[in-house]
Amino acid sequence: MSTPPAKIHNVPMGEGPSGRAPKGVGPARIGIYAFLVISALFFLLPLYVMIVTSIKPMEEIRLGGLFTLPTTITFEPWAKAWSSACTGLDCRGISPGFWNSVKILVPSVFCSIFVGALTGYALSFWRVRCANLLFAALLLGAFLPYQVFIYPLVRIYSATGLFSTIYALVLTHVIFGLPVMTLLFRNYYAGIPIDLFKAARVDGGRFFSIFFRLMLPMSIPMLVVAVILQVTGIWNDFIMGLTFGGLANRPMTVQLTNLVAPTEGEIAYNVNMAATIMTAAVPLIVYFVSGRWFVRGIAAGAVKG
Amino acid sequence: MLQKYRALIGANALALALAQSAFAAEKAEVLHWWTTEAQSKAVKVFADAFNAAGGEWVDNAIVNGDVAKPTGINRIVGGNPPTVMMMNAGKQFGELADQGLLNNLDDVAAAGDWKKSLPADVLEAVSRDGHIYAVPVNLQTPNWLWYNKALFEKFGVQEPKTWEDFFAAADKFQAGGIIPLAFGAQPWQQHQLFNGVLAGAGGRDLYLSIFRDKNPEATKTPEFKRVAETYAKIRSYTDPGTPNRSFNEAASMLTTGKAAMHIMGDWEKGEFTAAGWVAGEDYGCVLGLGQQNFLMDSNVFIMPKGESEAAAKAQALMAEVMLDKDVQVKFNNLKGSMPVRNDVDTSGLDACSKVGLEVLEDPGKQLAGPDWLAGADMLNSLADVVVEYWATPSETPDEFADKYAAVLSEFQE
Amino acid sequence: MKQRPIRWSVYAGLTPAILIVVFAYIGTIIWTVGISFTDSRMLPVARFAGFNQYVRLFATERWLTSVQNMVIVGVLMIAISLALGFLLAVALDQRIRAEGFLRTIILYPYAMSFIVTGLVWQWILNPTLGIEQTVRGWGFENFRFDWIIQKETAIYCVVLAAVWHAAGLVMAIMLAGLRGIDQDLWKASRIDGIKPWRFYWHIVVPILRPSFISATVLLSLGVVKLYDLVLVLTGGGPGFSSDVPAKFVMDYLFQRQNIGLATAAATTLLITVLCALTPWLYAEYFRAEKRKD
Questions:
Q1: Average pLDDT over residues B13-18
Q2: Is residue B84 classed as helix, strand or coil in its secondary structure?
Q3: How many A×B Cβ pairs under 8 Å?
Q4: Same domain for B46 and B106?
Q5: Which of B51, B56, B246, B359 has its CA 20 to 30 A from that of B259?
Q6: Per the structure, how many domains does chain B have?
Q7: Number of alpha helices (DSSP H) and beta strands (DSSP E) in chain C
Q8: Mean pLDDT throughout A234-261?
């Protein structure tokens, strides 16, 4: 397959630098390091601001100086952001949003990967009528702006009583996760020798038994990438949670925007930034822990936007 | 149970009938967006009265009306409606009524004699083609000027009555290093301020020819030019922190002494009360700078058609409860607005509500709010023009008037 | 593979995908396009209105502003991200110390949601809180950096935050491309004494053309879908000066309850994407397929 996003994992990142070997410490060398260090500072700045502010007491924030290090360190904002900051009358902090996100995440990741793997498998190994048409429609679905789908989906969910339930959100994530998941597994299965499949067929394997017994166990590396991709993607989703989730199921991102909306006179920046870090924590941990897998995942899944 | 209910509602025949049916504890899911402290206390008055009358109030409060409204509408259209849903009076629910999705409340209104106890304008604002579709619960106006009394005394400023007074006062505060006007430049606040200027500095006739007649020619008048100039001039009396500031943040600029004045609706009082401020002592209020007009706005509750008989009964009971005299007084005191009934005891109202009531007594000062006269589509399009004008200091009043006229001509009937 | 009889189990396995495509994709698109030709306001009605909504849409200043903003963000964000990402990749490729660490730092923003990105940049760019306030605190009383509250410049704040979010992705794609370049080329260039910048500009950049194309496609898709970031960073303001089409559609669908106009805008967006996408998709997936057969 020649999908551009997939190209990246043909070439492992760790192969080693290809640029010229250093010729001592010349001005060019210093320039390169200066460029890299300045860039790194630019990328780190927001994370630094969030962390530093989240452990400052309000008295210090009032004095200004968003970028100065705290003179007193307090973890109270973190505690408050987690369990007692107010959204309107609801003073349970951001933790309900966290648990909502988890409740949305687990079934959505599971279902979307399962359906995607199954579809990718069917399209790769079995002769299906109009397979190209189906695949093209799926691809388009990955690229089109959500705004085209959203209103009819709202109406369909309302009519079926799914609106504002967790099922609506899970279903939505399956719907919009399907193209990328299918693409991912279709590409992966394209790399599996067809003879393996033929042998399984000769042994009397049927559609589902080959999938569960042979293909799924062989797909572990792709499953890992898919899980990383879906966990970060679904965790970071905002528009679906906002539109379909309703009050009781709003994910952490939606709740964060409500939490930081000023309700009292003084904005508690330290609490807000602590809540923001917490919301970013899950995908960041996935990223830092899984490193290279993550790079593969985003490259393959960035089409999802 | 029955006794309690009678005491609350009064013993007319319908109430009795309702009370009997109410023994079944009619469940009513109520969708609304009253979530600040003052607002929730006010809603609780309804909930308690409804429960006492034998109903069962299921609260569904959604922060932010912009989210709550579409959520409710989608459920109504999708056939899974809440029993009762909050709205604003005027054109907002018209389409729902046209599509036959709302219960007609004519019988309930006749039984409760709404014609006698509610202002005619309000009744019209909850009607569509001669039928009543919503229960109004209060009256409020968005064009109050609130001010910090201590600051006014310190600077020796008199309560302004006109926009000229306002600017004179503002100059003094600015010279003294106080932000003259607290303001949040969110679109709804900008549009609301503009409409206040339109009614106050432009006057009743201009206001009506714009919102009622949608007459583009109205923007060519000297009155409109004065409105446009006044509105632009206000800009220079605000601080740079206005973008995206919420109204309650702006209110707190008054209570903390950072700013001297704020123009906002009745609901501002809830914020002051929460900060421990008392009307007439800590803060003063002026209704409608310039021409004193009460821009009538009312929160209403609509009753979507449901499948079950029980829902219809609960809805009728809800309408009765919400318009009960005692409930009206208690609710509006907490909410900071005025009772919609004209036959209730008003002695318990605060100093500012009394000012409002006085103005309301003169029918010549009652003016239907923009929502009552024009659809959301037109108002939002106008809001876009107004917001753009505020954000563009280089735009002249004439350019603004042309853009404003273009929207009006689009909606002219 | 030779033709086999239809296996129903295969179609059973494809049922979810088929249902999703038919109902959730094709059905909803038809519905949306259909509504755009009616004069629906709060509710969809079947009163045919021809192209009225489209006429009105293109007479609406806010829509034109949002389209213009999409172009500004598209061009600037993609150009800057490509340039920055490429330069970073080249710099990282010079056998430098702590490459893995730097790579991690440059790419981590991509793991963050647009909500988080928007919020944190909103704080940093807020003149009463962030950079302006801090620099003034250093004694430069007249320092001004209030792009986010100025109508003319707010959209560039969106560009800034979007570049911060996406440059790491470009870097990752480019670095993978660089690592794929034949080692002999480098040796040859050194022997020939070609100046490094010439080598990169005339040889490496053309070789990396596919990487540039895929990065551009990925970034431009993000531009069309741009919604959350603008919502929290500027709220589309001041006024509607930093509005974008996706936000325009959402506002008119839900807050303004003018679904006729909203669906007309969504349809316009759809057509734009299709026009840009179809040739590329065809070339990438189906022509390649045919060649293989």
A1: 42
A2: strand
A3: 59
A4: yes
A5: B359
A6: 2
A7: 16, 0
A8: 86
